[in-house]
Amino acid sequence: MCFENKNKHISLANNKLLIDTIVEGILEKKGRDILILDLEKLGYAFCDSFIICHADSTTQVSAIADSIEKKTREDLTIKVHHREGLENSIWVLLDFADVLVHIFQKEYREYYKLEQLWGDAKTIKIEESYNF
After folding, report:
1. DSSP-assigned letter for residue 41
2. What sign does the dihedral 111-116-122-124 (CA atoms) show?
3. Taking the CA atoms of the chain, what radius of gyration do you get in angstroms?
4. Which domains does the chain have, with CATH numbers?
5. Beta strands, E only, the chain
6. Rounded CA gap, 96 and 89, in Å?
7. Which of 4, 18, 80, 129 would you label with 51, given CA atoms 20 to 30 Å apart?
């Protein structure tokens, strides 16, 4: 699957540009504890990557989701394939085919421990000073 990006094709199998853009959207709204889980080599995962972060309120969860969608649409001309959870904004899922973004309220992230469920995946922790 390919998407147009300002006259260039982006293969979602090589999704670093998409991941970088999503992380930028998260950081713009002060998302916390950003993790990228590389699931590609696991062999049983249904996507290549998870991006997980959390926020302090439902308002911030919604703002992060909006920021990601706006940034990917404007910078890469990629639209989210599917979204869930915006009606209550305690756990929002954005589906970009090979990349799934999970935006939690902090207490729900701690409860579900999604990153521990995929503990055998290579994990990259993103710092606020992340270089794109």
Report:
1. G
2. positive
3. 14
4. 2-120 (3.30.460.10)
5. 2-5, 8-11, 32-38, 49-55, 82-84, 91-95, 99-105, 122-126
6. 18
7. 4
Backbone angles phi, psi at 85, to 5 degrees: 95, 0
CA neighbor of 47 nearest in space, from 116, 101, 99, 123: 99
Q: Which two tokens stand for residue 10?
A: 């982006």
Q: How far apart are CA 130 and CA 20, in angstroms?
A: 9
- Distance between CA 86 and CA 88 in Å, rounded? 5
12-28 pLDDT per residue, tens: 435 899 999 999 999 99
Question: Whose CA is closest to 77, among 28, 10, 132?
Answer: 10
Torsions phi, psi for 78 (to 5 deg): -110, 130
What values do phi and psi take at 64, rounded to 5? -65, -45
